[in-house]
Amino acid sequence: MDRSTSSQLHQEANRHLVGGVNSPVRAFKSVHGDPIYFNRASGAIVEDADGNSLVDFVQSWGPLVHGHAHPEIIKSISEVMAKGTSFGAPHIGEIELAKRVKERFPSIDLVRFVSSGTEAVMSAVRLARGYTGRDAIVKFEGCYHGHVDSLMVKSGSGLATFGISSSPGIPDATSGTTIVLPLDDEGALEYVFNDNGENIAAVIIEPLPANNGLLIQRKEFLEKLRSLCDEYGSLLIFDEVISGFRFPVGGYAGHIGIEPDITTLGKVIGGGLPVGAYGASREIMSVLSPMGPVYQAGTLSGNPLAMAAGVATIDLLDDDAYEFLEGLGSLLEREVGSVLEKHSFPMRLVRIGSLFWLSPGPGELPRRSDEIPDNGSKLYADVHLGLLQRGYMMAPSSYEIGFLSTSHNEEHVIGLAKALDGVLRDLGDLL
Ligand SMILES: *Cc1c(COP(=O)(O)O)cnc(C)c1O
């Protein structure tokens, strides 16, 4: 498959954009070759700059639960766009999307829209601190919450100690407000709450960690988290930017039956346009400006095009859509799973609903980031390239998950499994 146009464009982009990209993972640093430039996309298929068609299992990293350029979503956006692209004033679209969020997230009375997942999380953390009057935040190794300063933190020397920045540019004073714990460890949770519980404003977690592989947690662990937050008056923030709207009941919170205090949303909620949101009970949300003293604002927040895309996306997510996605997901699990097994390839398919991950290594499925074997990236890079050559696009990193959309069909899924069969046969000759 010729990709020379993409490679040429990447050379040119390198002269104008940092590393040629606007978000680092797009640069293909952990897989082979140059980034692929897209011309257009429709449904499950993207067309690259060289005119190749690829079946896309990245789907813009999650937002496109109905695939690319869904006609009804495009129609909604176009109709609204003709009446103006931004008002900076209230409009009915904001009410419409807020109602839909509340229908699916019963723990939310009031919503605030922002323009990205990062912004939602950053604001939710400020809200939690403002509401509780406390500073400390607990987060988990292996969870991603966007590039929020106080959450770009890794664990320090001991369990109860505050974290250290995971990127230059973040002052120690900022990372020093965050405690980082391992996932799947009730003992560590108890230890930290016993030690410091009165100072903890909030615990933030992806209840379904999906940015460092797919690390499905035990329900008991999340229940322990809920009860410790209650005991110490700390708020529980579920970051559902990736998991939100991927379950018939709304979020992963509904799927497992645990209510957070604050929920952050993004990705699917904007159906491909930039939207983030956070919401909670009226009591918590009313400390937010203009009702209360905690400030948060946005010139393009509640943008009419973005609200329209979100409304159209959620309205298409009915019971049939979820049933379809579940059916496709279980087909993928069977087909890809049996190919991996047939070749005794050291990878397993982890899948929940429409989200999936090629988990490296044999043995137990990982629940913590340090349980993921680190030789997985090398194997994945070869698999990634082989699949691309056969017309199937997976995320350019072994730590990123795959996404099914309502625009995928059985042919796409079976095709992926067949392509993988070919890739592993060829790799087997090399191993
Ligand atoms: C993607 C993601 C974010 C960041 O959202 P952006 O829109 O990329 O800023 C935050 N939290 C989780 C769980 C995510 O998956």
Give an account of the 3D structure.
With 431 residues, this protein is of the alpha/beta class. The radius of gyration is 22 Å and the shape is globular. A hairpin with a 4-residue loop joins strand 2 and strand 3 (53-56). It starts with a helix and ends with a helix. The relative contact order is 0.16. It is built from 13 helices and 16 strands. Helices cover 37% and strands 16% of the residues. The structure holds pyridoxal-5'-phosphate. Pyridoxal-5'-phosphate is lined by residues 116-118, 121, 144-146, 206, 211, 239, 241-242, 266, 276.
Entry summary:
The protein is of the alpha/beta class. The chain has helices at about 5-15, 70-80, 90-105, 115-130, 170-175, 185-195, 220-230, 250-255, 280-285, 305-315, 320-340, 375-390, 410-430, and strands at about 40, 45-50, 55, 110-115, 135-140, 155, 165, 180, 200-205, 235-240, 260-265, 275-280, 345-350, 355-360, 390-395, 400-405.
